[in-house]
Amino acid sequence: MRHWTILDCVLTFFRWALPICVTLHALRHKRNTSACAGWIGVCWVGPFVGTALYLMFGINRVHRRARKMIDHHSWEGRELLAKYRQVMDGHLAPLAKMLGRLTERPLMGGNSVKVLHDGDNAYPVMIEAINQAQTSIVLCSYIFRADRIGEMFAEALVEAHRRGVEVRVLVDGIGSGYFRCAIERRLRRDGVKCSRFMHSVWPWRMPFINLRNHRKILVVDGRLGFMGGLNIGEENMLRLRTKLPVADTHFQLRGPIVHQLSVAFAWDWSFTTGEELRGEPYLPEPVPVGDVPMRIVTSGPDADLEKIEYGMLQAITLAKTHVRLMTPYFLPDDRFSAALNLAALRGVVIDVVVPRSSNHAIIDYARDANLRPFLDAGCRVWMADPPFNHSKLMVVDDEWSFVGSTNLDVRSLRLNFEINLEIYDTGVARDLSAFMDSHRKNRLTHHDIDRTPYLIQIRNAALRLFLPYL
C-alpha cells in the first residue's frame, strides 16, 4: 500500500487547483469561445505546463493596462476639436454615427489628403518634412530597416535632434528585429529617443508575445502627418529593383485630423515608455487646410478591440452598389466573409484585389484554400501581377474610403495594433477605385481552383487551420 507524502499532497492539490483557477479566469475573461475552450482543455490535460502557458500567453494584460491608462490621459482635446466636428448625411450617415460612438473620436472637417504611391514617391516627401521640422517629430513603423533607406531616415532624424527638435521613434519589437534591432541602436547612439513596442527577450515579461504594433505614423510639428501601409526599407523603392520589390500606398495629411494621428502615437509611446507627450510641440491647436471629412480609427487587443473590423462590416452592410478591397493578405474570419458574401448575394458588386504571389508563400497557400465561398457568392477576386502590392485599401460606393495599415486577416483584425483612416470624399474614393481597377488583370474562376492538383489543395487546406496565427 502506497503511503502519501507531503509532496504528493501538494502536487495533488495543484493538479486540481490550477486547472480550476484557469477555467474560472478563462470563463470570465475570454470572449472567443474557441480560445476559451482551447485554454481550458490544455490546462486540464497538462495542469502545470498548461497553466504556465496560459499565464504567459493567455492573459491579455494589454487590455488591463489600457483600461488603467484611460483615466489618466486627456490627449483627445475634445473641446479643442469640437469646432471642426463634421456631421454626415446620405446613406452612409449611419456609418459615420456608428464609428463616432465606437471610437469616441469626432469626424473632423477642414482636412486635405494626398495619395503617395510607393516609396519612390513617399520617402522623398517624408524625409523633406523631417528636414523642415521645427518643434517635434514622432515616427512609428512596424519595419524600420537599417539599410540604405533606413540610414537616410536615421540621418534626417539625428540631424533634426541635433538642431533641437523633439524626436520620438517607436518600432515594433518583432517586425524591426526581435533579438537585434540595428536601427534602435543606431538612433540611440546619436541621442534620438527610440523604443521597441512590447519587447523583451524573456517571454514572461512580455504582456502578450503574439501581439505586434503594425501602425505606420509620421507627424512633423503636429501639423503634417503621414500614415498608410508603407514600412521603411529598400524593398519599397521600386527603382532599386530589389529581389522582392514591394509596392505600397501612403497618405499625406494636413488639418485637424493630424491631431488625432498625433494622439494615436502619443498613446502608444506612453504605453511603451511611460512618457506623456503633451503641449504645443506635439499637439498644437489645429488649423483647417482643406474641406475633406476624416477620422482616425485604431484597433488592437486593448480598449480598441475590433473597432476597425466593425467599421468595415458596417460599411459593407450599408453598401448599395460597389465595394472594392485591395489587400496583400486575404484571410478574413467567418464574420467578415459572411458580410462580403451576403452583400454580393444582394447585388452589390464586390471586387477583391490580391497579389498573385505575396512575400509570404504560406499565407498565399492558406488564402487559396479559402477563396471558393467568395466565388460561389458572386464576389470577383482578382490576382494582381508583380510587383507585390502591400496596399490596404477599401472603397464603398465611390463615396467612402478606408485606408491604413490593416490587412484582411485575423492577425490584423484581432491581434495587431492597427491604424486606419476613414475619408468621406468622392474625389479620393474615385482615385483609389481607379488605382485598384488598374490592378484587375486576372480574374480568378472556379475552373482555376478546380484544376489545382489534389495534393496542393490538401496542403492549402491544412495551412488554413492556422489562419489566426498567419
UniProtKB/TrEMBL annotation:
Keyword terms of this UniProt record: Cell membrane, Membrane, Repeat, Secreted, Transferase, Transmembrane, Transmembrane helix
SMART domains: PLDc
Segments passing through the bilayer: 39-59
Any one Gene Ontology molecular-function term assigned to this protein's record: cardiolipin synthase activity
Ranges for domain PLD phosphodiesterase: 209-236, 385-412
Main location: membrane
One GO cellular component term: extracellular region
Top-level class of the enzyme under EC nomenclature: transferase
Keyword Zinc recorded: no
Gene Ontology biological process terms, A to Z: cardiolipin biosynthetic process
The UniProt record lists the keyword Cell cycle: no
Documented EC number(s): 2.7.8.-
Compartments it resides in: Cell membrane; Secreted
InterPro entries: Cardiolipin_synthase, PLD-like_dom, PLipase_D/transphosphatidylase
Record-linked PROSITE patterns: PLD
CDD domains: PLDc_CLS_unchar2_1
PANTHER family: CARDIOLIPIN SYNTHASE (PTHR21248), PHOSPHOLIPASE D (PTHR21248:SF22)
Free-text function comment from the UniProt entry: Could be a virulence factor.
Protein name stated in the entry: Cardiolipin synthase
The organism of origin for this protein: Gluconobacter cerinus
